[in-house]
Amino acid sequence: VVSALIQAAVSSVPSSVAATPAFTSPAVDGGSLDRAAIQSHLAFVTILDRAGQVVAQSHTTTADDLSQALRSPAFARARAGAPVSLSDVLSGSSGSEVVDLIVPLQTTAGGRILVGGLPASELGTQFGTYLQRIPHAVGAAYILDSRGQMIADAAPSSAAAGATVTQLPPARLANARTGS
After folding, report:
1. How far apart, in whole angstroms, are the C-alpha atoms of residue 144 and residue 176?
2. Which helix (H) or strand (E) holds 49?
3. Of 26, 27, 23, whose CA–CA distance to 36 is shortest?
4. Closest CA to 118 of 96, 140, 148, 142
5. N or C: which end of the chain has fewer CB within 10 A?
6. What is the pLDDT of residues 37-76, one digit of tens each?
């Protein structure tokens, strides 16, 4: 269910990104990426060439944001051909947590890779709305990253986004470890 949920939520990303001139034109400037980040509610946006060299970035992109993205398995998956990839929850430059959205692009200037920092709280809110629709008489519905950090919860008041599996209430912790 979770895999299908995430796939559905991000399936339209490559086509909408590919249609965004700020990301795909031969000359990309930081000002365009600043506007795109604001409009898309992203913490930062960076456009890289296939080798990982910066083509352009929003003014909110830090060296640490870029370093984390380049080291992430999500970046490797995008370089290997995945149409879209999400990272684990990462520490953002502003102290807030982000999930990197990484999308390979085919442009007239050649292959590029978009890295956008999705605030984990925004992603949690979006997925939380979907998770609330999952019927469950007992237990809970939530999404964890590969390290066990919570991204979304069907009952947001019961646990803060960003909690780790070991911080979940006992009943929810048992279900998390069994994959429920």
Report:
1. 8
2. strand 45-49
3. 23
4. 96
5. N
6. 888 888 898 999 888 899 999 999 999 999 999 999 999 9
